[in-house]
Design brief:
The structure is a single chain. The protein is α/β, with parallel strands linked by helices. The protein has a 5-stranded parallel beta sheet. The two termini are 22 Å apart. The chain has helices at 10-15, 28-32, 51-60, 71-82, 93-99, 116-137, 142-158, 162-167, 182-190, and strands at 7-8, 21-24, 40-41, 63-66, 88-90. The mean pLDDT is 91. It is built from 9 helices and 5 strands, in the order E-H-E-H-E-H-E-H-E-H-H-H-H-H. Strand 4, helix 4 and strand 5 (88-90) form a beta-alpha-beta unit. It is 49% helix and 8% strand.
């Protein structure tokens, strides 16, 4: 595997932007809300499916993996490394990229859903509050808060998130009708 940096700041990435094939691992809804110019959308949960195409692209030049904050892109880089493909992540993700004044592309009229990590915090917090409130009227309802807490602990220990998998399937996180299909994205990557 070639030796290359494992992460780039927005400034470093912008200075070398033409060298990269950019892969955005956010949900299609998040991607549609604004992504780095020319980025290809391959959601994190589909990295393994795209491994052959990404390996082909990485043989031609460096891959830059991007998400909202850098957490999912780091996971994507780790998955690719385990499959023998080198990739680097954008430190701070699209949030840091836009904060540094770099441009993003978005489909005309595209809605901008909250980043998935924010959706998770809202859903988990709401369930805990609901379990607490319901528990005031009916004591066994406190178990809801305990189960959510246990799920969050499990998520932290295993570095997985079942709630993220569920939320990613909601309509506002799914591709719009005019989005490029996953299979076409793979073809464009390898063309």
């Amino acid at each position: 595997m070639p030796t290359s940096p494992t992460s780039f700041t927005p400034g470093q990435a912008a200075a070398r932007f033409g060298e990269f094939t950019v892969v955005d691992v956010r949900t299609p809804g998040e991607y549609a809300g604004g992504h780095l110019p020319g980025a290809h959308n391959i959601p994190l949960d589909r990295i393994a499916e795209a491994a052959d195409a990404l390996r082909t692209v990485a043989a031609r030049g460096p891959l830059l993996i991007v998400c909202a904050s850098g957490a999912r892109s780091a996971k994507g880089c780790a998955q690719l490394a385990a499959l023998g493909t080198a990739a680097a992540t954008l430190e701070g993700g699209t949030a840091a990229w836009t904060a540094a004044g770099h441009p993003v592309e978005r489909a005309l009229g595209a809605r901008t859903p909250w980043p998935l990590d924010r959706q998770i915090r809202l859903a988990a917090g709401s369930l805990v509050v609901a379990g607490f409130g319901a528990g005031l009227a009916w004591a066994p309802a406190h178990w809801l808060s305990g189960l959510v807490g246990a799920g969050l602990v499990f998520s932290g220990v295993t570095n997985t998130c079942g709630m993220a998998a569920l939320l990613a399937r909601l309509p506002y996180n799914r591709p719009s009708r005019d989005a490029v299909p996953f299979e076409e994205t793979l073809l464009r990557l390898t063309a």
